Fold this protein.
Amino acid sequence: MEEELPIELDPPDGVEEAETAVEVLRAWIGDGALLVSLNSAAFAEHVEDWGRLLAEIGHHVAKAAALNGYMAEDEAQAALREAFSIGFETIAPGMSGRLKGQTKH
């Protein structure tokens, strides 16, 4: 029997106890399309910080793939690097987007 995925994930451990915590990214797959909400002001003009954030997310994904028994962590990292490089070169930069408000919690 296939396990149903959650609609919304729980915040990660440590967020509740953190003195300061800022949500920077949410992503969904809706009807086959990537839907993203991000805090575009989180790093201001320091877009290289987004690169480091994406790299760290990649490490989490690779670790999760290994923990789930899908593949070794180093294999997952290699697959992620290749897919990122190909995706960055081939995905059209003309995707839609707009600035929206934020909800304060």
